[in-house]
Specification:
The chain has 508 residues and is α/β, with parallel strands linked by helices. It is built from 17 helices and 15 strands. Strands 3-2-1-12-13-7 form a six-stranded parallel sheet, sandwiched between helices. α1 packs across α11 and α2 crosses α3. It is elongated and about 90 Å long. Bound molecules: ligand ME8. The site of ligand ME8 has 20 residues, from β1, α1, α7 and β12.
């Protein structure tokens, strides 16, 4: 049986509409999932929505609807956004689903039975926007350090999860598994946080009803973060399908931004330890997108939806920009002007020109068919370098490095065409030389379509079709199909088609 590869995004709160920050994580997870599918892995790519807690209850109250109605409406907007962006998630989990309640209650019971949950009274400063308690020291000018909003004093008799007991086990675990939290800088932050000392935290609430009741004390509902993190176990059958759970768990990659790293690299692993379960292989915290540039400078990032950009850039253009513009891991600015410039340079010019030049010439010089000849010029080695670079970059989630290698191959191919000038050999009547060069270029285009397909699936599939290839690039398998000449293509009918990425004029 092929390898299981399980990758997740955070489950997004339904108090907010989907924006480009959510899309940033989701598109990267999608590209990774598609890349592993090309390798024949049995991929499970999970995303979804986080629907419990005070924040959602209040958002619903403000609108005069029930929390469930509000969650239904907003959750659907996330699904729509992901459809628009060609996100290939295999599952979409909602924390209000029955399967999740079953799993959370099984998980809680296990942790309770193992003696890591106990009743206590708690008074604390609560930020509703974070759904988290703070101490006086955490506050900045008396306000929540993240949202700069007033915190509320809350007194509750709660069940506490004994996080403090996991301080040393977590440090030992991370010493033995340095790859478990990435990138390195983020791992150091996590270690620093653990070393400051971990406090038990309250994992139940009596002040609200919008949540999952504790199985041993239904007067309490589960704290929203405790419930939310368990989604990753629910989706692979925890408490319902032990065989599926054993096959899928532990997860290979949890992708998220640095805002919620602590929950994923401290709380969640401790919860898993308390339940006697293996820890995630990799928790990867990427940076934060901010808004820069002229056009959008007065817009908050939360107000820029994928649907605002896709009509102009296409879903491929959107995906391309967010995956290649920033180094995954670091913070960076989103700018509309930068997006137009990069689209025109990389997609309309480099990629689009290569495709249209090669197809145009092969249509007129080779009777519209892939020639049965190759020059065995430099592109063969350059294509191998591109693939090897991607194979090395992906495990480190260096997306810009991986696709930078494909665009290097595209530039190499454009340069090769300039150097070998097939229009001259054609004019001179040297059909063999012309066919040999164009044969190399067409083979390069096949490999480009294949390697770029996780990032720009629409254009890659269309190019594949124009090259007269069978099926779709998704059906090809790596590493075999990335080999030069691995697929018999001679005689395939070619099609010219319209520009894959029409040039854009910025609309300022
Ligand atoms: O925290 N830049 O949900 P959330 C980059 N429900 N990524 C961003 C971003 C930005 N400006 N804004 C949002 C929650 N994100 C919890 C998660 S998981 C068990 C529960 C992305 O709706 C990024 O992935 O606030 C970030 O971690 C996530 O959205 C926060 O989504």
């Amino acid at each position: 049986m092929s390898d299981s590869f399980y990758v997740t995004t955070p489950i997004y709160y339904v108090n907010d509409a989907p924006h480009i920050g959510h899309a940033y994580t989701t598109v990267h997870a999608d590209v990774l999932a598609r890349w592993r599918r090309l390798h024949g892995d049995d991929v499970l790519f999970l995303t979804g929505t986080d629907e419990h807690g005070l924040k959602i209850q209040r958002a619903a109250e403000e609108r005069g609807v029930s929390p469930q109605e509000w969650a239904d409406t907003t959750s659907a907007r996330f699904r729509d956004a992901w459809t628009l962006l060609d996100i290939s998630n295999d599952d979409f989990i909602r924390t209000t689903e029955d399967r999740h309640r079953v799993s959370v209650q099984a998980f809680l019971q296990e942790v309770y039975d193992n003696g890591y949950i106990a009743l206590d009274t708690y008074e604390g400063l609560y930020c509703v926007a974070c759904e988290a308690y703070y101490t006086d020291d955490d506050l900045v000018d008396g306000l929540c350090p993240i949202h700069r909003r007033p915190v509320e004093t809350v007194t509750e008799e709660n069940y506490f999860f004994q996080l403090s007991r996991f301080e040393q086990p977590l440090l030992d675990y991370y010493a033995a598994h340095p790859e478990a939290v990435q990138p390195d800088g983020k791992r150091n932050e996590v270690l620093g946080f653990i070393k400051q000392g971990l406090r038990d935290f309250s994992m139940s609430r009596t002040s609200i009803t919008w949540g999952i009741p504790l199985p041993w004390d239904p007067n309490h509902v589960t704290y929203v973060w405790y419930d939310a993190l368990i989604n990753y176990a629910t989706a692979v059958g925890f408490g319902a399908d032990p065989a599926e759970f054993a096959r899928r768990w532990p997860v290979q990659y949890h992708l998220l931004a640095k805002d919620i790293l602590r929950f994923h690299a401290v709380y969640w692993p401790a919860m898993l330890m308390a339940a006697g379960l293996p820890l995630p292989e990799h928790v990867f915290a990427h940076g934060y997108l901010l808004v820069g540039g002229e056009k959008m400078s007065k817009t908050s990032l939360n107000n820029i939806a994928p649907a605002d950009l896709v009509p102009e850039f296409g879903s491929d253009g959107f995906r391309y920009h967010f995956v290649t513009d920033l180094h995954f891991g670091q913070d960076g600015d989103f700018s509309y002007e930068g997006m137009v410039a990069r689209y025109n340079a990389d997609l309309a010019n480099n990629f689009g020109n290569l495709a249209s030049r090669v197809l145009n010439m092969a249509m007129s010089y080779c009777d519209g068919r892939v020639p049965d000849a190759r020059a065995d010029g430099p592109l063969r080695a350059q294509a191998a370098v591109a693939f090897e670079t991607m194979e090395a970059a992906f495990p480190a989630l260096d997306f810009s490095g991986a696709f930078g290698a494909v665009w290097q191959l595209i530039r190499d191919a454009n340069a090769y065409i300039e150097d070998s000038a097939p229009w001259k050999t054609h004019k001179a009547g040297d059909a063999a030389a012309t066919a040999a060069v164009l044969g190399d270029c067409l083979e390069t285009l096949r490999i480009v379509a294949l390697l770029a397909s996780p990032l720009i699936p629409r254009a890659a599939t269309e190019l594949w079709r124009r090259l007269g290839l069978d099926g779709t690039p998704e059906q090809a398998r790596l590493p075999e199909s990335a080999q030069w000449g691995s697929v018999p293509t001679a005689g395939n009918p070619l099609e010219k088609g319209a520009a894959l990425f029409p040039r854009l004029e910025p609309t300022l």
